[in-house]
Design brief:
With 60 residues, this protein is an alpha+beta fold. The protein has one domain. It contains two helices and five strands.
Length: 60
Amino acid sequence: MSASTVPARELLARLTEQYPRLRPILRSSRFLRNGEYLEDLAAPIGVDDELAVHPPYGGG
């Protein structure tokens, strides 16, 4: 992993440190890097990557 990337897990930990109210939402969310679902939160996120958070939702 290069100096310009960070594991998704670490990025999410930083987010919950800064915004603690996100913790319960992020626990049950799905994440996409550049439009593709992350299967492993150890996946690197680079400075030019887009990380999308899909919180739980329902509909019908």
